[in-house]
């Protein structure tokens, strides 16, 4: 395993990886401003080649301790395991890995808390959840300081993988240097014994970064969970929108689902709706001519949120600038689509006018390779 610009704890970690049976002969660890540590190919690699193998006993997975937290959040099980290993100090067989993991500073959620819409509420929820988890970890392990607990919670939040087939949540050394891309060149799988393999999905040139897809989530979620946003096209170019409906004019009083609950929809980069299903009950609850009522209500709500995004302060943070610009563009094109449907008043049902063409719905395949968020 080669490594450039190594610091001491990274070198100790890499030596430990070798002893633990982690095989990554054609990968190098690099650091890049704005991307942190990352994996880079040291050889030209063909498609479908295994480039990393991490044996099960080198992986920190959800342990017996997680039983304590069954009624609570999934991440506490893994965080508990991590803090337990940290408390063992040099006695822990994962010590170099644990040390490296707990060096990571949690990213600042404060500047995100004032963002409009779902982005701001996600950040505020995350702040509350982090505080609860830190308190729970400290209460469960009196030798654990709030700072250690905060670092553990952050490491778990941003680095845990979940394998559906193996039904396992885990912190996987070396593999967790892999960054996310909307067009990844690798995917991972977990064997039934809990070991992990990383395999190329395309040809990879020498020096090229190896990436996977963590998830197909909007930029606001990427920012709150992982601390970065992506430019360009892809599933990240979308906005989650909470729509409060209350009582619409022309709503049927009897029968039909409750239209009072706010519903969440997702708007894609081309201004179409990805998830239309939450709006369907509302349509059922309206009188026949009331598609227009719904469209007008939608337009009003979107205009309100658009105004909030236009007034949002990026606080000289380039990630926030990108998120704000993208949210404005997405909401604007969605609003234009609704308004032109209202103006045209054509026979096309509102939901199909707002929905995406088939290929846009399909999204992006993540197979086993979705990280928890
Ligand atoms: C699983 S770790 C990946 C390795 C990480 N770069 C490191 O330094 O250890 C996930 C973190 O990597 C960073 N990251 C991943 N993909 C990124 C990307 N496309 N752009 C910028 N940062 C990214 C984010 O800080 C994220 O929370």
UniProtKB/TrEMBL annotation:
<dbReference type="Pfam" id="PF00856">
    <property type="entry name" value="SET"/>
</dbReference>
<dbReference type="InterPro" id="IPR046341">
    <property type="entry name" value="SET_dom_sf"/>
</dbReference>
<feature type="region of interest" description="Disordered">
    <location>
        <begin position="353"/>
        <end position="373"/>
    </location>
</feature>
<dbReference type="InterPro" id="IPR050600">
    <property type="entry name" value="SETD3_SETD6_MTase"/>
</dbReference>
<feature type="domain" description="SET">
    <location>
        <begin position="47"/>
        <end position="215"/>
    </location>
</feature>
<dbReference type="InterPro" id="IPR001214">
    <property type="entry name" value="SET_dom"/>
</dbReference>
<dbReference type="GO" id="GO:0016279">
    <property type="term" value="F:protein-lysine N-methyltransferase activity"/>
</dbReference>
<protein>
    <submittedName>
        <fullName>SETD4 protein</fullName>
    </submittedName>
</protein>
